[in-house]
Amino acid sequence: MNRKDFIKSAAILAGSTLYFKASAFSAVRSQIKVGLIGVHGMGWANLNALLKNEDVVCTALCDVDENILGERVAELSKRGITVKTYINHQDLIKDAAIDAVIVATPDHWHCLQMVDAVKAGKHVYVEKPIGNSIKECEIMLAAEKQGNSMVQVGQWQRSQKHFSDAVDFVHSGKLGKVRLVKAWSYLGWKTPILPKPDSEVPAGVHYDRWLGPAQKRPFNSNRFHFEFRWFWDYAGGLMTDWGVHMLDYALLGMKAAEPISIMVAGGKFANPNGASETPDTMTAVYEFGDFNIQWEHSIGISQGPYDRDHGVAFIGENGTLVLNRNGWEVLPEKGKMDAVPLQKPSDNGLEKHMENFVEAIQKNDRTILNAPITAGANIAIFSQMGNIAYRTKRKLFWDTQKRKFTDKEANKYLVANYHNGYKLPTV
Fold first, then answer.
1. Would you say 159 and 370 are in contact if contact means Cβ atoms under 8 Å apart?
2. Inside any domain, residue 416
């Protein structure tokens, strides 16, 4: 399934829960009023999944593009849902009637909006990756600790049953010693973006609000809406787009956290003269002492490892478990174990993720969140390490105690530079 279909249909594949199984509860439930910040693409899919919970109602939408905002208001109106609209997320957050917000804006906005929301006492569903720098992730962790908000990260596969089952199988030891884990995303449907001239800001777009803390630049459609993810000002390319999903499960399967070292090779090989900044082809190797985790991605090619365009493979001495959104199976080493045929998804992962978020809010219990802020920060930081190794062109070593690299040049990338009068949040 490509990302366009994924967003368009919102029919995201199966799910239940990872470690905290969802359960029915009989407590008196109050209605949860939700506001959506960022109504295009994944934000819209998130809202529709959340609204399948009978205790949730949408009361507000916020977006800097009044064209998309108007379309969403009209769509909700046809369903009998009336909402307030905002251009500035701070105005939405000040609305005392709103209990929870969905943050589904470009990555460079996540930290500011999530911190503003929890300071205002709102519960937050924040899209992945939670931050666009390691420092932002650490700030978001600190903000959550100081408040009482439930914060769920958009790592919805953590609420998907077949992913949980696959990790359980890896932990069973049946694969034997796992010495290498591969994770990948081959985005065959996406072609490199070609350079375009700067243009006037489209009518109805509040471009200064879209830029926010990012460096001020003339408007260019190559950097707007979906394409923002290929530019360092706003995101981290496929490494932080798909990598946070697949590498999250590599870490879960290996019960791993922070690597000893990271080295990366890649570049704009598909089109060196393309408009994007992030690499279209990349291989990263994370060293953990007695095993490695390898990430690879390629834009414009579909045939990834094991004939899958995305996935995670736990390569053990007895066999290899291959996992992705379409299911998991075990490919045995000859004579060492039995094969396990493809175990297909059984329910909707995003909907289960939202059910889990609602239950945590109603029970006021962070411990049952399937993707708490700690999990989101861990994998966002992990992916950022890979991007920093790529940008420095060096093998990097991470100092867990000091929370930085041993390389001064690499440490320059730990903090995102804020512009236009914006400053990193303080907590």
1. yes
2. no
Q: What is the pLDDT along the chain (427 residues), one digit of tens a residue?
A: 444 443 344 333 333 333 333 333 334 458 999 999 999 999 999 999 999 999 999 999 999 999 999 999 999 999 999 999 999 999 999 999 999 999 999 999 999 999 999 999 999 999 999 999 999 999 999 999 999 999 999 999 999 999 999 999 999 999 999 999 999 999 999 988 999 999 999 999 999 999 999 999 999 999 999 999 999 999 999 999 999 999 999 999 999 999 999 999 999 999 999 999 999 999 999 999 999 999 999 999 999 999 999 999 999 999 999 999 999 999 999 999 999 999 999 999 999 999 999 999 999 999 999 999 999 999 999 999 999 999 999 999 999 999 999 999 999 999 999 999 999 999 9
Q: Which of 217, 258, 205, 203 is nearest to 386 (CA)?
A: 258
Claim to verify: residue 271 and residue 388 sit in the same structural domain: yes
**Has residue 426 been placed in a domain?**
no
List phi, psi (to 5°) of 408. -65, -40
Amino acid at 130: I
418: in domain = no
Distance CA 56, CA 102 (A): 13
Write the DSSP string, 13-77.
Answer: -----SSS------SPPPPEEEEEE--STHHHHHHHHHTTSTTEEEEEEE-SBHHHHHHHHHHHH
Whether residue 114 sits in one domain with residue 84: yes
User: What would the DSSP string read from start to end of 195-226?
Assistant: P----PPPTTB-HHHHHTTSPP----GGGSGG
**Co-location of 139 and 164 in the same domain:** no
Same domain, 199 and 276: yes
- Give the count of domains, the chain: 2
